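ok, trying the design again with the full structure, not the truncated one.
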């Protein structure tokens, strides 16, 4: 037994506090051949937690397609995925969650979430060039939600701005299911030469194991276990499990690691994230099929009297474990001193297969490394269809009044909504409204990779110049969690399709997907059914769209006493836009890339904006509008209903839409492309009028057909894109649409200072901007 925080705690109690079940404890006994001591119980507890061990999700994640000819590192092999982008370079990217810490300490939780995902990228040897965030909160009329929202945004801004990495995009949704349990998902993208890709392996008997970075404290103690249980009314007491970040220290660590990796002295490197020193040591040993002997007495400590248990489980930020070649320690230490960082040898690699922990030479823990990683328990939880689903999916449209302009029928108008008023209401919805209040706090232009047309608020995807190659990356993150609540399979498909559609709207070809899968308690059969169905949907969409999953994160136990959050499988997609200067083939990997664009070229690349640019351009609609109102923002905001089946997605049509966009943009035929998502066609058209630096109107005529007017204007049918183009290219666009069997029709013209949609909507662009641009800032005043 040991004494922690002045309490004497038995090993079984330690394990139980970390979420280890009785059967898992018995399994530990079998692995060790004896009772674990308190340090070993804590080590098993954090490594076998859901956050580190993925014990409820590992089997399901095997459904995801993880093969691709451009993949240099596959999902699960290392800290992040890596994809060849040609010319000897790779893009490295991944998404992570920091939900529970952000619920307890929003600023620190969000900030350290940013720090953690940045380390995952430069641990691979890549220089981070961009961040994206995907956030979920309750309704902003709740003072607690406003405090959480403000704290999270400030935490992301403070860390990203201080370290000098731009936050270039993301998404934010508001729904009451997140009132007590916000979601904070962060994605990071970096660039690295193929030969500089680093591995998280400990190999080479006798090679020294070095500790690099900030000193270890008690902050973050037990964070992995904290993230592997539900939030309760007592979760405020878990504040010690929330780490404290220092972005200036991380900047030093980043530069020191990249300089060290630029030499050939490094054998393996791993950041100390979840489970801290424990995770870094056992994972590198396990990946390297080796053993490791370390002494915690050598670990730099910023607090006195820390026990071996505390040092092993601390999640203090800005720390790395580096395995260097024997005899190169002094070289590494010199680099560490240059950057004013702690850098000490704490142990050595051996071939025992064991993780041995010492304290001032005394052996205090001895565990087979693979028992903590590869042999972690794996469960196949039971599943059942949620009880709420049948009622939630039922939507009686006959009972919902359609919209109708005022004046046509005064008696009917008293009980029906005016379309222009509905549009104003939707533009003011925090989920749809401009996120300028958020992104104006982010330095999105630092490092000068970000193109203005793809900066936050101006594009469906962010566009980044890869200075090393002259090409461009497009990045996007997306998920409609209401769709996933109503139909997790279809919602998972749509999350992939929309994120990929966003990058297609700027002319990019997808390279890979990263995910952040946020769900409630997986031991609840209804929650696990949601998870399984969402992953099946993601897998199907990735297969049809031919986009491999390069890695990601699962976050379970996103629950509070009020219930579980809506299923939220956030999808991040990275794509590439080729420069005509660089050619279309990698000398290292001679598989074909798309040919260089032949049309309108800016700074060496061709892309479309998401907003109207020029008076006289024609407005086209790609896709067909159906009577699909289930799960729409219109139903939520106007009729206060979260019901119905979400739109059905035809993945084969979606794939052809993406191909159309890439070909048309690459040929310079399209000036703007903006996908129809939340709020439907009317909201998409309104955004096209005001997202650019100069507001401009449009006159649009739509065919009612046989569907309801509210579905025509505000329904969220998938695979639809609003396009503007010079009339010069009308024939080319029609021929391309016909060849690809994509519905395509002219619906209007760009001109004037009003948005006119048939006889139903007329609104000044200044008024559109006022409702759309100021909704969140007014609420947060």
């Amino acid at each position: 037994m040991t004494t922690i925080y002045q309490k004497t705690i038995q090993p079984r109690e330690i394990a139980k506090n970390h979420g280890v079940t009785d059967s898992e404890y018995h399994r530990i006994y079998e692995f060790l051949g004896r009772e674990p001591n308190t340090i070993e119980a804590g080590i098993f507890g954090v490594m076998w937690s859901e956050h580190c061990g993925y014990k409820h999700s590992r089997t399901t994640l095997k459904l995801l397609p993880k093969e691709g000819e451009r993949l240099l590192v596959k999902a699960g092999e290392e800290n992040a995925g890596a994809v060849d982008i040609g010319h000897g370079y790779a893009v490295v990217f991944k998404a992570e969650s920091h939900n529970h810490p952000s619920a307890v300490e929003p600023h620190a939780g969000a900030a350290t979430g940013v720090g953690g995902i940045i380390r995952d990228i430069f641990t691979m040897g890549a220089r981070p060039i961009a961040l994206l965030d995907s956030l979920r909160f309750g309704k902003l009329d709740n003072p607690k939600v406003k405090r959480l929202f403000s704290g999270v945004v400030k935490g992301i801004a403070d860390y990203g701005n201080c370290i000098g990495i731009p936050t270039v995009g993301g998404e934010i949704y508001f729904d009451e299911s997140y009132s007590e349990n916000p979601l904070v998902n962060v994605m990071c993208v970096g660039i690295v030469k193929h030969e500089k890709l680093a591995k998280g392996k400990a190999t080479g008997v006798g090679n020294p194991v070095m500790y690099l970075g900030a000193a270890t404290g008690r902050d973050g103690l037990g964070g992995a276990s904290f993230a592997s249980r539900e939030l309760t009314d007592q979760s405020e007491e878990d504040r010690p499990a929330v780490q404290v970040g220092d972005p200036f220290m991380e900047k030093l660590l980043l530069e020191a690691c990249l300089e060290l990796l630029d030499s050939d002295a490094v054998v393996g490197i791993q950041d100390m994230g979840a489970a801290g020193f424990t995770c870094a040591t056992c994972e590198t040993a396990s990946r390297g099929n080796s053993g490791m002997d370390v002494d915690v007495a050598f670990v730099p400590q910023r607090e006195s009297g820390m026990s071996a248990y505390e040092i092993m489980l601390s999640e203090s930020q800005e720390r790395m474990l580096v395995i260097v070649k024997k005899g190169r320690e002094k070289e590494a230490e010199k680099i560490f001193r240059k950057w004013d960082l702690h850098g000490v040898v704490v142990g050595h690699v051996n071939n025992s297969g064991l993780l041995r922990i010492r304290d001032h030479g005394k052996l205090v823990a001895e565990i087979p490394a693979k028992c903590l990683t590869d042999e972690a328990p794996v469960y196949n939880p039971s599943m059942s269809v949620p009880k709420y689903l049948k009622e939630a999916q039922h939507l009686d449209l006959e009972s919902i009044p359609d919209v109708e302009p005022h004046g046509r029928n005064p008696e009917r108008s008293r009980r029906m909504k005016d379309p222009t008023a509905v549009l104003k209401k939707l533009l003011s919805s925090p989920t749809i409204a401009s996120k300028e209040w958020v992104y104006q706090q982010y330095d999105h232009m630092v490092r000068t990779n970000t193109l203005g047309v793809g900066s936050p608020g101006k594009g469906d995807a962010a566009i980044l110049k890869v200075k090393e190659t002259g090409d461009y990356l497009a990045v996007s993150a997306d998920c409609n969690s209401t769709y996933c609540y109503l139909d997790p399979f279809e919602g998972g498909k749509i999350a992939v399709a929309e994120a990929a559609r966003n990058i297609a709207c700027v002319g990019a070809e997808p390279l890979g997907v990263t995910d952040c899968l946020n769900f409630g308690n997986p031991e609840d059969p209804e929650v696990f059914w949601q998870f399984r169905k969402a992953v099946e949907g993601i897998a199907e969409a990735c297969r049809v769209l031919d986009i491999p999953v390069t890695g990601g994160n699962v976050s379970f136990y996103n629950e509070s006493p009020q219930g579980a959050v809506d299923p939220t499988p956030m999808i991040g997609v990275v794509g590439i836009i080729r420069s005509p200067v660089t050619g279309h083939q990698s000398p290292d990997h001679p598989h074909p890339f798309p040919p260089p664009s032949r049309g309108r070229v800016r700074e060496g690349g061709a892309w479309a904006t998401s907003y109207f640019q020029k008076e006289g351009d024609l407005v086209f609609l790609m896709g067909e509008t159906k009577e699909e109102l289930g799960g729409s923002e219109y139903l939520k905001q106007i009729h206060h209903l979260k019901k119905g089946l979400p739109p059905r997605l035809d993945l084969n049509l979606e794939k052809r839409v993406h191909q159309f966009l890439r070909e048309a943009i690459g040929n310079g035929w399209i000036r703007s492309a903006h996908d129809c998502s939340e709020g439907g066609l009317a909201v998409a058209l309104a955004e096209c009028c005001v997202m650019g630096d100069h507001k401009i109107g449009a006159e649009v005529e739509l065919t009612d057909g046989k569907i309801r007017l509210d579905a025509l204007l505000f329904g969220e049918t998938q695979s639809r894109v609003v396009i503007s183009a010079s009339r010069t290219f009308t024939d080319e666009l029609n021929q391309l649409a016909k060849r690809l069997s994509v519905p395509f029709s002219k619906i209007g013209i760009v001109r004037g200072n009003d948005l006119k949609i048939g006889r139903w909507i007329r609104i000044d662009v200044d008024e559109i901007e006022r409702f759309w641009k100021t909704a969140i800032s007014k609420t947060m005043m």
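Keeping the full-length input from now on. DSSP finds 27 helices and 29 strands in the chain.
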